[in-house]
Design goal:
Elements lengths: L5 H8 L3 H7 L8 H13 L6 H7 L5 E6 L5 H16 L3 E6 L7 H9 L4 E4 L6 H9 L4 E4 L8 E6 L1 H14 L5 E5 L5 H16 L4 E5 L5 H12 L7 E4 L2 H13 L9 E6 L12 E4 L2 H17 L7 E4 L2 E3 L9 H6 L1
Parallel strand pairs: 1-2, 1-3, 3-4, 4-5, 5-11, 6-7, 6-8, 8-9, 9-10
Antiparallel strand pairs: 10-12
Amino acid sequence: MSRATIKDVAREAGVSPSAVSRVFTQGASASAKTRERVMAAAERLNYRPSLLARGLVGSRTNLITLVMGSLADPFDALFLDTFSQAMAARGTRLLLASATSNEPQDSGLLQALDYRSDAVVIAAGTLSPAHSELCVKAGLPVILAGRVLDAPGVDSVLADNRGGGRQAAELLIRTGCRRLAYLGRGGATFSDRERFAGFAAAARAAGLKVIDQAVAQRDDTATFQASTALLTGDSRPDGLFCGADSLAIPAIEAARALGLGVPEEISVVGFNNVPNAAWRSFRLTTLDYPVGQVVEDILALIDSRFSDPLRDNEVRRIATQLVVRTTTRQRPPQETAAS
């Protein structure tokens, strides 16, 4: 048996399709008599209104598309959970589009356009000027999470990555570290490049150089191997800043496997402050990037774009806060010995 349509309900109730639409549209005007007839006909036909079809009748679909890649990093999973809860709280439907390695953002944008999303949030891959122009022409607000693109109609929310890198370097230097290293993605992401730049600039200001160790693949085994190579090299660092907590935790495990004391022989700082950074087995010193604030700013930019579609682009950088735990020294070694 085919699914009943709005026209079937209208015919059964003896009213127009627009009258049926008004009955099932929140806030729309319909008389009590018409509402009663339509609801009775809908019950007889087992009719359930299509939320998407209802959205297409008006200017909004109450649907937001989120483009995400792999959730292997705990921060990405936390972001998705926080964002989806925020969507539910405001009664907005969420369309999750998975980015592929070959098409990091194209497929997600096409889904957003096909489903007439009210906005698209891109938290994976990149966005070309050509695609941003396509979105603007379609009236689709675009929010980039974690990167910046200077293109009309594209807003951004991201961490103060350079500031976080600077904070990490200053802490390590202040507590006596002189051989600094950065463990990251080799500049593969916007945030990775900025975090390294902030860390290296602070190190240079103190007359120190930074070893840059890249992890090619996003898995713990590759990170453990890269960390082991770094810690067994000719210039073993005594202060390590990792571009994400997901890199810092395998680095700690590699140091312990080599018999190195953390933080006595090597201090480690992460970035993001994911929940497992606080576990007793790690107690990782890290930069807190508040995911709740990220989601709040994304939604604020979406609402602002709805109110003023032609406003200038806005970039919101969220300050990071240093959370000192036990993977970094409390003071330089000589002061510790003297006390």
